[in-house]
Amino acid sequence: MTRLTVEHVARIEGHGNIIVNVENGEVREVRMDIVEPARFFESMVVGRRFDEAPLITSRICGICSPNHVVTSIKAIEAALGIEVSERTKLLRKLLVYGSFLQNHATHLYILAAPDYVGLPSVFPLAETMPEVVDRALRLKKLGNDLTTAVGGRPVHPVSAVVGGFTSEPAPALLASYRDALLSVAADALATTELFASFTVPDFASAGEMLALTADDDYAIYDGDTAALDAGWRRPSAGYRSFISESVVGHSNAKHSTVGGRPFMVGSVPRMNLNADRLNDSGRAALAKSGVALPTRNTFHMNVMQAVELADASARCADYIERLLDMGGSSVPQPFRIRSGQGGSATEAPRGTLYHSYSIDDDGFVTHGDVITPTAQNLANLEADMRDFAPTVADRSEPEFAVLVEELVRAYDPCLSCSVH
Amino acid sequence: MATRVVVLSLASDFGCQVQLTNMTEEILDVLGVIDLTYWQLASSGHMPDAYDVAIVEGAVTTDEHVDLLRSVRETAAVVIAIGACANTGGIPGMANLLDLDERYAVVYGNGGEPKVAAGKRAPMPLDAFIDVDYHVPGCPIDPAEFLRTLSHVLLGMKDRVPDQTMCASCKVNETVCFYDRGGFCLGLVTRAGCGARCPSLNRPCTGCRGVASDANLESARAIIVAGGGRPDALETGLSVYNTAKEVRG
Fold it and tell me: Which residue blocks in B133-207 are alpha helix, DSSP H?
């Protein structure tokens, strides 16, 4: 019998416990207990002014706060019928991508990589493989610097507001980031090669796969929601019509299903659905990843994040080029406060994030709803653990533990996000 | 022997710990002077029995948190509270504005409360339960301020949280006051120390660093009302980050 209990799993954001029992090749019990305490964000926004909602809900998550800010703002703009300028949209894309660069570099190098080189943390690598740590820090710092330039700081950006931006980076500063982004192309490719070199289990997740999709871009800032197996594409604002949530006893985060099935969100679904919209850098990295699409292997989330790093750095350089050329303004224009309901989605580093709000005649929020990527992934994560555990139950206990933890970390889970 | 440091989190968004990972270069510089004994976000391993400094993020929202905090206080020579949640209850503290059971109903529906939520309590800052030696306020913490405080801890210097309000920082930055533009800003009562970052980006202060010891609340209310604001605007604005602190009196 193989029994695994890991309390407060390390190198993931938030507090969760893994419980796996396998007896004679049969799974007796598999649970991911989410013990992260609830903070009740959906109740907190009720009664607050519409412009306080992004400020409050961005505190759901310290890692992908730019996504929460932007998703929340877009949902409120949808409710109030506000259109924003192309310039504002490009700046918001940079804000979200800054968090992608920061998050992917952190997840890949600080949280995930130690498993594959047999270390408890990334810190010992600073002595043995300084070039790898330097590369990780360069990517992470560039992401933070980009978010800081556009949003004012790396965690909980301040200048993105309903209608636009309260301030913008100077053109010279933006131009310097274009150059910096182009200069990390080699780092992004080296990251892909590093993660392609790690041996991952041959595993296929049984769940459906969802991601945003758009005709004109690798969808991050906006788009419809697409389902890989079912083949549909639906407006994201109506997410409540296709995602069902249920409360489960062992988790403060709810579990989600689509069409009665657990599903996956994140880099693998995004790549499966949108690889044809990668730029040249992304395609080059994908070719080096050794992954044939579509893939159902959860462990490929890591290397697909690395491919996204390559795509994102070139894509952001292009966005900056356009911003420098286009003129226009991101200053919020006057709008009328009215009652309404609006929903919106973005792709956060670990998957699709949905927000929706109802607003009354005076601009106060009467209802708020958020489904985070990790909450969407939890049911699928448990299903994966159930399928995967028996295949590696013959390994030694430490090996078994590392493999199961690798599976959990591949989702890049954000548990405080999942509970919120 | 290197100072043994643990990093712990209660109810939070991990944003302050993300700010710590954003200081990886600086942290690598001080490894040797400090021994990062336990940091769940960054390293595998178990919480040790002995350590010198505990860095705690997050608000207290469960009985388990209270037990953990008390044992941390018994073990550590120094406790540092980082972030708004740990210092003022922060945004989780807003839960004090409504009955806790009602909040469960809004989020989970009636009767569907998860079992792991046992022992819930109204969110509070750390000093509602234990003495805190050093304070790094803000949502999230400012990396430079954290490093300054950590060096104060290692050098045995006193906690030096600024007493004054944000207004002096705006004067230094030459930021035109929001009240001179017909706007609203909580900087006039909020603790300085972040360089008034939000006002410098043309966004009014939202009070994430807590109310300054030197703040004159009465005079702030008069300024708000003179500018055409509602008499309760100060309390409403402060309630985002400071409800738990206010509730405690």
Answer: 143-155, 167-173, 197-200
- Distance of alpha carbon B64 from alpha carbon A17, whole angstroms: 15
B98 Cα to chain A: minimum distance (Å): 9
Contact call for A110 and B21, based on CB within 8 A: yes
What SS3 state is found at B160?
Answer: coil
Cβ <8 Å between B42 and A416: no
- If asked whether residues B182 and B77 sit together in one domain, one would say no
pLDDT for res A68: 97
CA atoms within 13 Å, Cβ hemisphere of B3: 20
Task: Report the candidate in B48, B55, B100, B107 with the shortest Cα–Cα distance to residue B78.
Answer: B55
User: How confident is the model at residue A225, as a pLDDT?
Assistant: 98
∠ CA(A28), CA(A29), CA(A35), 5° rounding? Answer: 170
Q: Domain total for chain A?
A: 1
Cβ neighbours around A419 below 10 Å, total: 30
Domain residue limits at A337 = 38-378
B-proximal residues of A, 167-226, CB under 8 Å: 167
A interface mutation test: which of B107, B110, B238, B243 has the most A CBs within 10 A?
B107
- What stretch of H or E contains A359? strand A351-359
Which one of B128, B155, B182 terminates a domain?
Answer: B155
Q: How many domains does chain B have?
A: 2
What domain range includes position B102? 3-155
Is the pTM of the predicted complex or chain greater than 0.80?
A: yes
Q: B48 and B146 in one domain?
A: yes
Same domain assignment for residues B73 and B147: yes
- A26 within a domain of the structure (yes/no): no
Q: What is the pLDDT of residue B3?
A: 92
> Which of A38-42, A255-259, A364-368, B207-211 has the weakest average pLDDT?
A38-42
d(CA B215, CA B219): 9
- Digit-coded pLDDT (tens) for B9-40: 999 999 999 898 888 778 777 777 888 888 87
Q: Encode pLDDT of B101-151 as tens digits.
A: 777 777 777 656 666 556 788 899 999 999 999 999 999 999 889 999 999
Task: Assess whether pLDDT exceeds 50 at residue B249.
Answer: no
Q: Shortest CB distance from A38 goes to which of B24, B90, B107?
A: B107
Residue B162 resides in a domain: no
Q: What is the dihedral of CA A131, A132, A133, A135, to 10 degrees?
A: 80
Residue A175 lies in a domain: yes
For helices A130-151 and A301-326, angle between their N-to-C axes, nearest 10 degrees: 40
CA–CA distance from B151 to each of A210, A395, B3, B76, B148 (Å)? 47, 46, 12, 17, 5
Q: Per residue in A363-418, pLDDT tens?
A: 999 999 999 999 999 999 999 999 999 999 899 988 999 999 999 999 999 988 88
The token duo for A81 is 């019928």
Report how far apart, in Å, the C-alpha atoms of A213 and of each of A76, A89, A258, A270, B62 are.
21, 16, 17, 8, 40
Say whether B13 and A62 touch across the interface (CB within 8 A).
yes
Would B12 be classed as within a structural domain?
A: yes
- Answer yes or no: do A39 and B104 touch at CB < 8 A: no
Residue B161 falls within a domain, yes or no?
no
A356 in reach of chain B (CB within 8 A): no
